[in-house]
Amino acid sequence: MAADRPLKATLESVAALANVSKITVSRAFSQPDKVHPDTLDRILKTAESLGYVMNTAARNLRAKASKTIGIVNPDMANPFFGALTRLMTLEAQKAGYDTLVFDSYESQENENRIIDKLIGYNVDAIILSVISSDRNYTPGYLKNLERLGIPVVLVDRELDGAFCSGVYIDNLDCGLQAGRYLLEQNSQKVVVVSGPEDSNVAKERVTGLIAALQGKVASLEIIHADFYMDAALRVTNEYLDRQPPPDYFVGCNNQISLGIIKSCVDHRLALMKDVSLFGIDEVSNAAIYGFNFPCISHDLHEIAWQALGLAIRRAVDHDIKPGKVIVRGKLIGG
């Protein structure tokens, strides 16, 4: 029982008893994959014998609920993640939970440090959008969270593994819906500005577009950039500098669509007149500035509600198996 454990276990005492440095002990909890297996095993056994989990505040980690959920997003400046975080916080409050919100700024180092802190803050569960949309991304802290019994709900970016629950967008369907719409508009020349080639999100959206358009349009070009406005602006500028605009640009997320819009403005092209745009994800407040274009909209309230529900259910009952929810987007403005 947690009450029988020593009351003054510290990182220093674990390090001394395990005969390792304090840094090695900290790394064993936050990045276990970077610690030699024998050393890791010795540290974990020592910590368990002392009743130590990351810090004094977390000593009774799984013995007592904190009614707190950690939320980690990769880019709060992106309206998608910013709005989603706000909605999850509101849903948590309705359920009687506080939230600790962190922005990893798309940095693996930050992400590792944040998870380390959330363990120490004794959160009941973590809702996490990881820094990478590559399903093969395997952060070492996941093993530690599983060992500690802290439920994890992944949002938007999926990872392989049975430990985590998840709420994901149906990215393949996004591409299919976009492609079908373009066919209805009799588009013949289509340029898709996508995210990185190794991104699972980008792959599925592009796969859907290709499935819908291949052999049915005169020209289909895929340009890989990143999921940020600046990268999309750069590659769209390069395209428009060398040839006339297509019938349609497709922006594979809201930030890419912003980059396309900026490039069209810079090239003095009237959007939806000289060139048309289809966006996957809404661009916040675009209509205010006169940019009206069709897009795939996702119900952020639904995503937030589903993520909170999965997190709380597993926090309350650890016998509940991880769940997976797929949210399908809706065509608007068409």
TrEMBL record:
PROSITE patterns: HTH_LACI_2. InterPro entries: HTH_LacI (IPR000843), Lambda_DNA-bd_dom_sf (IPR010982), Peripla_BP_I (IPR028082), SBP_2_dom (IPR025997). Residues 9-63 form the HTH lacI-type domain. Keywords: DNA-binding, Repressor, Transcription, Transcription regulation. It comes from the Bacteria. The keyword Transcription regulation applies. One of its GO terms (molecular function) is DNA-binding transcription factor activity. CDD domains: HTH_LacI, PBP1_LacI_sugar_binding-like. GO terms for biological process: transmembrane transport. It holds the Pfam family Peripla_BP_4. This is LacI family DNA-binding transcriptional regulator. It comes from Serratia fonticola.
